[in-house]
Every structure is written in structure tokens, then in C-alpha cells.
TrEMBL record:
<dbReference type="InterPro" id="IPR018356">
    <property type="entry name" value="Tscrpt_reg_HTH_DeoR_CS"/>
</dbReference>
<dbReference type="InterPro" id="IPR036388">
    <property type="entry name" value="WH-like_DNA-bd_sf"/>
</dbReference>
<dbReference type="GO" id="GO:0003677">
    <property type="term" value="F:DNA binding"/>
</dbReference>
<dbReference type="Pfam" id="PF08220">
    <property type="entry name" value="HTH_DeoR"/>
</dbReference>
<dbReference type="InterPro" id="IPR050313">
    <property type="entry name" value="Carb_Metab_HTH_regulators"/>
</dbReference>
<dbReference type="Pfam" id="PF00455">
    <property type="entry name" value="DeoRC"/>
</dbReference>
<keyword id="KW-0238">DNA-binding</keyword>
<keyword id="KW-0805">Transcription regulation</keyword>
<protein>
    <submittedName>
        <fullName>DeoR/GlpR family DNA-binding transcription regulator</fullName>
    </submittedName>
</protein>
<dbReference type="InterPro" id="IPR001034">
    <property type="entry name" value="DeoR_HTH"/>
</dbReference>
<dbReference type="InterPro" id="IPR014036">
    <property type="entry name" value="DeoR-like_C"/>
</dbReference>
<dbReference type="InterPro" id="IPR037171">
    <property type="entry name" value="NagB/RpiA_transferase-like"/>
</dbReference>
<dbReference type="InterPro" id="IPR036390">
    <property type="entry name" value="WH_DNA-bd_sf"/>
</dbReference>
<feature type="domain" description="HTH deoR-type">
    <location>
        <begin position="3"/>
        <end position="58"/>
    </location>
</feature>
<keyword id="KW-0804">Transcription</keyword>
């Protein structure tokens, strides 16, 4: 990742939380601790943030506390061809007329391109997904209520009495920060709370993750492998990871990139 992009992510992160640790920045940028410390020092000298012990804070305290994790705009550019192939396989599981839930995320967002010709009731907490489907499809779209988190382009509500409880889905499609033996992992407690409500409304949970997510971890577990019906990933998955899913009784779909995915990825880059 280029220095300019790292600096953008770091500055965005300190505006979202009171203090961001060096380790959190390492995970957000996939950079070394030494690189992050140099970035913090440079941005401190430029008076764009304030260096503190173990991390950094904004010069002006954030007025609104956001979610942990990379911004949507950054995640969207990572493994783009794999995400598009995974999304295609996800839509292949869908049948016209069946209600589905699409959780916000950059991999699930790619599903919109393959849903344009479908007619389905779709519930989502993603403003970009809802907007695209409204403009480019005849699907019936229901959007959750709550606060819009701009960096992640997601709508979340901490309240139990929202519209989520009134929607039934045959399947829920979602991504995750990580996937391991203990299950699905996320990076923010509010995400966990909101996504658990959505999962409860679906018969089956389908997880869309590129193979890099099998090597990523978080301190927060959303659900165990036993709750997952199907995992769709790319051909970078390792044998031991496939075995882990098989042992847990989780169906595995390996998405193969097509030439159109690669061309689309290069255009986005």
C-alpha cells in the first residue's frame, strides 16, 4: 500500500475513534509496526494528528464515533476479481421470489451486478446496495433503519424494535473480518449486535469471504461454524482450511475467476 493511501486510512481512523493504537493501524493497512510508527511521526510533524503513547489521536476530537475496520472505499479495491467471482456464485444460489438478506460489505456489494435481472424481496443494511438495486433492478428492496456509518457505508441500529424483526429470509449473505475454527469474526461490538439480529431472521447463513480472510483474526466472534450453511471463497483456500469447513459440516463453494472479473478489476484499479 502506498504511503499516501496509508496516511488517508490513518487520518480517517483517528477521526472515527478517540485513540487509535499502532496495532489497529497495522491491521487496517496491512503494514509493519515500524512503517506505521514512521507514518504517525510524519503526520504528527505535519500537525495532521497528535502522537500519543502506543498510537495517535485526532487534533480535534471526533464528534461522532464510528466503527472499527477499513473504510468501504479501501476494501472495495482489495481482491476485487475474487470478490466478483464469489458474488456470482452467491447469486447462483438465489431463486426468484425467495426473500434474502444482504449484509453490507464490499464482497456482498458485488452481488448487485448479478441481481439486475432477478425479482426478489431483498432486505439490506447497506445504502450502496439498496441504491444500486433500486436504480438497476426490479427487486423489492427493504432498507433497515438506524445510523449511517459513512466510512463503511452501512446502516446500523442498536435497538431491538427495528424493522429487522419483521423480515424473514430464506438465506442471509454476509462477509466477515475473519473466519477460523471458532467461527465468524468481526471487529466492532456494534456490528456484532446488529448482524446477530439479521442472522436470526434467516434459515441459512451464506458467508462470502476471499481466501485471505481465513488468515485474519479478531477478538470478537459473531457466530460459530455450526450456524453457517455455506462458505463461498476463491481458489486460494488452503487444504487445511477446506478440511476445517468439512469437519464442521459447512458446504464449500470455490469460485473461479472469469476473464470479465479480471478486466473489471483492472478497470477499478
Amino acid at each position: 500500500m502506498h504511503e499516501k493511501e496509508r496516511h488517508r486510512i490513518i487520518l480517517s481512523a483517528v477521526q472515527e475513534k478517540p485513540v487509535v493504537t499502532v496495532q489497529e493501524m497495522v491491521e487496517l493497512t496491512d503494514s509493519s509496526e515500524a512503517t506505521i510508527r514512521r507514518d504517525i511521526a510524519a503526520l504528527h510533524v505535519q500537525k495532521r494528528l497528535r502522537r500519543v503513547r502506543g498510537g495517535a489521536e485526532a487534533i480535534s476530537p471526533p464528534q461522532f464515533i464510528g466503527l472499527a475496520g477499513r473504510p468501504f472505499s479501501v476494501n472495495e479495491t482489495l481482491n476485487a476479481a475474487q470478490k466478483r467471482a464469489i458474488a456470482r456464485e452467491a447469486v447462483n444460489l438465489c431463486k426468484d421470489g425467495e426473500p434474502i438478506i444482504i449484509n453490507g460489505g464490499t464482497t456482498t456489494f458485488q452481488m448487485v451486478h448479478f441481481l439486475t435481472g432477478r425479482r426478489m424481496p431483498i432486505f439490506t443494511n447497506s445504502f450502496p446496495i439498496a441504491e444500486h438495486l433500486l436504480k438497476h433492478s426490479k427487486n423489492t428492496v427493504m432498507l433497515s433503519g438506524g445510523t449511517i456509518y459513512r466510512e463503511q457505508n452501512i446502516i446500523l441500529s442498536p435497538f431491538d424494535n427495528d424493522v429487522t424483526r419483521n423480515f424473514y429470509a430464506r438465506r442471509m449473505f454476509m462477509g466477515a473480518q475473519g473466519l477460523g475454527p471458532l467461527g465468524l469474526m468481526e471487529g466492532d461490538p456494534l456490528l456484532i449486535q446488529a448482524e446477530q439480529k439479521l442472522i436470526d431472521q434467516a434459515d441459512e447463513l451464506v458467508v462470502l469471504v476471499d481466501s485471505s480472510k481465513f488468515r485474519m483474526r479478531s477478538s470478537l466472534i459473531l457466530c460459530g461454524l455450526s450456524r453457517i450453511a455455506t462458505v463461498i471463497t476463491d481458489d486460494g483456500i488452503e487444504d487445511r482450511e477446506a478440511k476445517m469447513l468439512e469437519t464442521a459440516g459447512v458446504a464449500l463453494v470455490v469460485a473461479r475467476k472469469q476473464s470479465s472479473d479480471k478486466e473489471e478489476s483492472s478497470l477499478q484499479a
